[in-house]
Write a structure and sequence with these properties.
This protein has 423 residues and is an alpha/beta fold. The protein contains 14 helices and 24 strands. The structure holds ligand EPZ.
């Protein structure tokens, strides 16, 4: 099990290439199931979650080939023979549920293991199931699987009003609606850039979609979809994560491929904290304006609000800010597990339900800490970069799900960081 060893080493200088978005790739890959034509995705990130989705699609009979050192994926579902997504793969990654909509839409049936909860919350999939039921599918939950079946004539278009915003449920419904008979309207749909990216790819495949990026998406079903080649949008969560490195350590770092529109709410908070972000023709340049950032209050919300996936990382920054910050996590019920680990490094954090109150300290101190989930793991690394002394972050398999070569990218900017592999 690998660990990562970091020694606080002062300001960072250099540039970091930002990869394609994990959470766009994880919904674009299942889109191959909607057509028997080839789908090619470029700018794909090289992450363990992508390898898990590859295994899942291959277990259904789809072909998935990594080209160009894994930054291109060539997919084909011409020979899909199974519509059963087994628990042993699904339990490794919740996004596996995103094969449900495409399978029911194209093959009329699916047996998908229920994903189960994860560290940050119960994360049910009831909205996914309700959306497909609105299109005429029957959902039978038994032995830990959802057995879905479309009506004889296939899914029907429907008006679907989501009671609250769900990224995954919007993605499943959007994909299924492309092959439904008639018109589907998604109301209170998620507006994340990953949804916009999915809609663009589906449109290139022949889908008729309008309104993506707004709360109302309208889809005119078609009988078949074709193939396409699609470049995956930049990963706004990886982008925001690395923007925090110069903010917490000092110095100046350029994030190649960064775009302010992907992280506008996040940039507003950085500006309030005293961190400047400048758009260049290569990406975003980030530098702290003064010696120490100022405390700010943060509330996580669906896009275009402050992303929950940057909450843990922002907390690391605010642990060293001047003043008291209040972070409210409104998306997940248990997403402060990084707090006790940061406290081991001298952070002062008081968690009461969904609110964490952070009293900034001058300097954190290195300590052995443990990663608990994907975004918590990288918040510990950010804290360690600015801490005095040595930090060993264990269980970094969480990290490798969503961050490609994190130690290389940070070392290139002057960080003292290395991966320690233990038998
Ligand atoms: C996606 O998860 C992302 N994952 C998450 O990123 C991200 O945190 C989340 O959206 C919110 O932005 C992928 O895209 C693969 P939701 P998803 O459905 O779709 C509840 C990361 O770190 N809910 O928008 O699962 C749910 O429990 C990951 O990359 C239901 O109750 O999130 C949560 O509290 C972590 N019933 C809230 O809604 C449902 O049917 C938002 O979940 C669906 C969701």
């Amino acid at each position: 099990m690998d660990s990562i060893l970091i020694r606080g080493n002062g300001p960072l200088h250099g540039s970091v290439p930002i990869a394609g978005a994990k959470n766009a790739c994880l919904t674009l890959m299942p889109a191959t199931l909607l057509t028997d034509q080839p789908l090619t995705l470029t700018n794909t990130p090289r992450l363990s979650d992508i390898r898990t989705m590859t295994q899942l699609l291959q277990s259904l009979g789809a072909e998935v080939a990594g080209l160009n050192a894994g930054t291109v994926l060539a997919l084909s579902s011409h020979d899909v023979t199974s519509q059963r997504a087994d628990y042993d793969i699904v339990r490794k990654m919740r996004a596996s549920i995103l094969v449900l909509g495409p399978l029911v839409a194209r093959f009329g049936q699916a047996e998908v293991s229920l994903p189960g909860g994860c560290a940050i919350g119960a994360r049910p999939v009831d909205l996914h199931l309700r959306a497909l039921e609105s299109m005429g599918a029957t959902m039978d939950l038994r032995d830990g699987y959802v057995h879905a079946r479309a009506p004889a004539g296939g899914l029907r278009g429907a008006v679907i009003e989501f009671p609250f915003v769900s990224v995954g449920a919007t993605e499943n419904a959007l994909m299924a609606a492309t092959l439904a008979r008639g018109t589907t309207v998604l109301r209170n749909a998620a507006r994340e850039p990953e949804i916009v990216d999915l809609a663009r790819c589906l449109r290139a495949m022949g889908a008729r979609i309008q309104g993506e990026g707004t709360p109302t998406i309208e889809i005119e079903g078609v009988t078949t979809l074709g193939g396409a080649t699609h470049r995956i949008v930049t990963d706004r969560i990886e982008l925001g994560t690395y923007m925090l490195a110069p903010a917490i350590c000092g110095g100046q770092v350029e994030l190649l491929g960064g775009r302010i529109d992907l992280v506008a709410a996040f940039c507003e908070k950085l500006d309030q904290a005293g961190v400047s972000v400048t758009q260049t023709d290569r990406g975003l340049t980030v530098a702290r304006r003064n010696g120490r950032v100022r405390a700010v209050d943060v509330v996580t919300e669906p896009f275009p609000g402050f992303p929950t996936d940057l909450q843990a990382q922002m907390m690391a920054l605010l642990c060293t800010a001047e003043g008291v910050s209040r972070l409210e996590e409104r998306i997940f019920e248990n997403r402060f597990m990084h707090a006790p680990e940061l406290a081991r490094m001298g952070a002062r954090i008081d968690v009461q339900g969904g609110i964490a109150t952070v009293t900034g300290v001058e300097r954190l101190r290195g300590a052995p800490v443990m990663a608990t989930d994907l975004r918590a793991s990288v918040s510990l690394i950010l804290a360690a970069l600015a801490a005095e002394g040595e930090t060993l972050v264990s269980r970094v398999y969480h990290l490798d799900r969503g961050y490609e070569r994190v130690e290389e990218k940070l070392r290139a900017c002057g960080a003292q960081i290395e991966r320690v592999t233990r038998a």
